[in-house]
Amino acid sequence: AQKITQTQPGMFVQEKEAVTLDCTYDTSDPSYGLFWYKQPSSGEMIFLIYQGSYDQQNATEGRYSLNFQKARKSANLVISASQLGDSAMYFCAMRELSYGNQFYFGTGTSLTVIP
Amino acid sequence: NAGVTQTPKFQVLKTGQSMTLQCAQDMNHNSMYWYRQDPGMGLRLIYYSASEGTTDKGEVPNGYNVSRLNKREFSLRLESAAPSQTSVYFCASQPGSSGNTIYFGEGSWLTVV
Asked: What single DSSP character describes residue A105?
């Protein structure tokens, strides 16, 4: 079974609008971390935001927030006030803390911001 | 601020040739990883090293070998390159304590013809 599922291969959003990128995960480990990364066309991987499985509040980092719904095993990324520079691939990832130190990645969502 | 450095950045190989991708990190991290990235497949783990002296297979280890030379360096070797190994390869490192993100190198573009 896939550890991380991103069902949106491509998304479009109007500049200055908000957009939600979906991510669901599968784990039996009670201790895990969830991450989002941005990969612009230049290829580097940029860390955006982190959510721990025991965190009570949703993580926020500037215009990024993580909508964490533990019972549904979802960790959606919300980008508010989209900018042209947000056009990139976005990857959701999970780390299982009890089962070694592997990071699992989804297949990614390509976001295009339209002026 | 070197972070994670991997070499070479670009390489073209002929089928059957061998090569080694080098990776070094200067952040004193315990864990290091090698991923490959293919269109529509995301990042798939090839091998990882949770700490110096240990290595473990990831999701797609066939055709690859690794060496954790010391705490800083983690190399990936292709013994007999195949066209299916054409990909972008990322090395990454992570402190080993909970919650910390994984830090990536800039990627190595490998083409096997």
From this structure: E
Angstrom distance (rounded) from CA B61 to CA A22: 29
User: Which chain B residues are within 8 Å of A106, Cβ to Cβ?
Assistant: 42
Residue with tokens 């612009």: A40
Q: State the pLDDT at residue B86.
A: 97
B88-101 confidence digits (pLDDT tens)? 999 999 987 665 78
Binary contact (B48, A9; C-beta < 8 A): no
Distances (CA, A) of B83 to A22, B13, B113: 33, 9, 6
Task: Choose the closest CB to A43 out of B31, B94, B107.
Answer: B107
Instruction: Give the Cα separation of B50 and B29 in Å (integer).
Output: 10
Substitution target in A47, A97, A101, A102 with the highest count of B β-carbons within 10 Å is A101
Look at residue B2 and give its three-state secondary structure. coil
Q: Is B10 exposed, middle or buried (0-12, 13-18, 19+ CB in 10 A)?
A: exposed
| pLDDT attached to residue A33 | 92
Say whether B107 and A44 touch across the interface (CB within 8 A). Answer: yes
Task: Name every chain B residue with its beta carbon within 8 A of the beta carbon of A33.
Answer: 98-99
Proportion of chain A above pLDDT 70, given as a percent: 99
Phi, psi dihedral angles at A29 (to 5 degrees): -80, 125
CA distance A95 to chain B (A): 9
Mean of per-residue pLDDT scores for chain A: 94
